[in-house]
Amino acid sequence: TEVTEKLEEVVMIWTKQIRQVLVESEQIRREADDVGPAAELEHWKSRMSSFNSLLDEIKSSRVKKIISILQAARSKTLKQWKELDGRITIAANEAKDNVRYLYTLDKFFGPLANASPVMMEHIPSLMNTVCMIYCTSPYYNTSEHMTSLFLKITNQMINTCKTYLCEG
């Protein structure tokens, strides 16, 4: 029981740390007013990297051994652990899925940033791709995510027009 108690303490520390990571990941992002759509992709790539690292750690043999010992001891701490493990898995899957979908927009980011204000040729394809993401993505199709993406696309268009006017 002494070993079990020590292992439960370790799991409780991990639980607290994982909860902190989850809370921080769910906080509203602070971004500059003129940030473009490439920042959205970078955000999700960073988040995917963080959650994949956390998943790798959770799936490590060291952690699995501790969890199996606690399972054998029928520890009460495992209920919280399993819930957090599930939340981390969902967050990792969301980030991975969002990166995959946002990469389909990546080909528009360069032309959108470097074009003249007559960027209309890119807009229909860009909007079709955004529509496809909204219709098929299980995670990114929320008004929150779409609003953020459209805001960044609009910011990029405005920045491109400003740059063009200042150079002309």
TrEMBL record:
A GO term from the CC aspect: axonemal dynein complex
UniProt cross-references to Pfam families, sorted A to Z: DHC_N1
Annotated Dynein heavy chain tail domain residues: 5-166
Example GO biological process: microtubule-based movement
Residue stretches spanning the membrane: none
Single GO molecular function: dynein light intermediate chain binding
Classification via PANTHER family: CYTOPLASMIC DYNEIN 1 HEAVY CHAIN 1, MALE FERTILITY FACTOR KL5
Protein name: DYH8 protein
Native source species: Vidua chalybeata (Village indigobird)
Lineage: Eukaryota, Metazoa, Chordata, Craniata, Vertebrata
Gene assigned in the entry: Dnah8_3
